Amino acid sequence: MKILVTPTSFLKPENAAAKAKLEAFADEVVYNDLGRPLQAEEILERLDGVDGYVAGLDYITADVLEKAPASLKVISRYGAGVDRVDMPAATAKGIKVTNTPGTNSVAVCELAFTLMLCAARNVPKLHAAVEKGEWPRSQGVELRGKTLGIVGMGAIGKNLATRAKAFGMTVNAYDPYFDEAFAKEYGIGKLSLDEVLTTSDFISLHVPLNDSTRHMIDASKIAEMKDGAIIINTARGGIIDEQAAADAVKNGKLGGLGLDAFEQEPLIDSPLKGLDNVIFTPHTGAHTAEAVSGMGSMAVDNVIAVLSGEDCPYVLNK
Ligand SMILES: NC(=O)c1ccc[n+]([C@@H]2O[C@H](COP(=O)([O-])OP(=O)(O)OC[C@H]3O[C@@H](n4cnc5c(N)ncnc54)[C@H](O)[C@@H]3O)[C@@H](O)[C@H]2O)c1
Ligand SMILES: O=C(O)CC[C@@H](O)C(=O)O
């Protein structure tokens, strides 16, 4: 068996046991030598003879899958999102795709909360000012008493909801598969998407990127939001129309943005850069010691299970 492993954080010490397990199972394990997510051509150059592929945030397009060797049986996503894997093409080729749901939900929710607090108090700008020898006495807002609207109340959205309640926020959510029992237990309001967007002081996005969520936050949706609303996106670039969001920060409609995910990563040229109270992190929501270890061990278990012909509950395209 030959396995390709591309998430660079897989090689952190937290994954020593998962790495040893994979290397004991396989005849050969090839690691990502580029130190970043792979583009289509770069994947193909590394797929020769590969049976299992533990995949980071690589762009596994239909073209890659059509040209992939017949030996490839499983793509084991190291993480929750599968938007960068062309699922119909994988299914057509008989390649199973798995993911690691829930392994990084606390990590991402804590980053979303961090971004929300930093935007409420303008922390990055204050830090930069103090570094320059300035001493501004800024004024922010409290989260207490504010309304948080969560779009996508799955593993991450739910973790965020309970923490926001502890901060004294009113929490409402939109999710087509709304979990009524969870909402009742924690006092989360059930609203339509438009109601969430028009009534929230803070809006946090936790939906997968697909055809129904692409640009779900566009200029027309932003126009309906409360003046000064702050949007947090730790889900995927592409869910927000970045040009529309940048324009809305510039003209004062939005109070700020906290972003961990972007349409083009890394973020090089972007209308979002250089704006007041737009806070970036480099798609690092899942990168805590705990989540890296959780993603690594489940991704390894999944690839081994599929290649061993065992039942794997995390196959998304049965
Ligand atoms: N920044 C990061 O590093 C990072 C890490 C993990 C996940 N993510 C992203 O966050 C997303 C959510 O992760 P999760 O673990 O909470 O996934 P999840 O599957 O547990 O939850 C997603 C929720 O979104 C809901 N949903 C689907 N379509 C919707 C729509 N159109 N409108 C509203 N709700 C909708 C689903 O019903 C589900 O409850 C992932 O798909 C991934 O893209 C990012
Ligand atoms: O590879 C990672 O950094 C985690 C990916 C994360 O966005 C996810 O989809 O779970």
Automatic annotation (TrEMBL):
CDD domains: PGDH_like_2 (cd12172). InterPro entries: D-2-hydroxyacid_DH, D-isomer_2_OHA_DH_cat_dom, D-isomer_DH_CS, D-isomer_DH_CS1, D-isomer_DH_NAD-bd, NAD(P)-bd_dom_sf. Pfam families: 2-Hacid_dh, 2-Hacid_dh_C. It comes from the Bacteria. Residues 113-285 form the D-isomer specific 2-hydroxyacid dehydrogenase NAD-binding domain. Residues 20-317 form the D-isomer specific 2-hydroxyacid dehydrogenase catalytic domain. Keywords: Amino-acid biosynthesis, NAD, Oxidoreductase. Belongs to the D-isomer specific 2-hydroxyacid dehydrogenase family. This is Phosphoglycerate dehydrogenase. The lineage of its organism: Bacteria, Bacillati, Bacillota, Clostridia, Christensenellales.
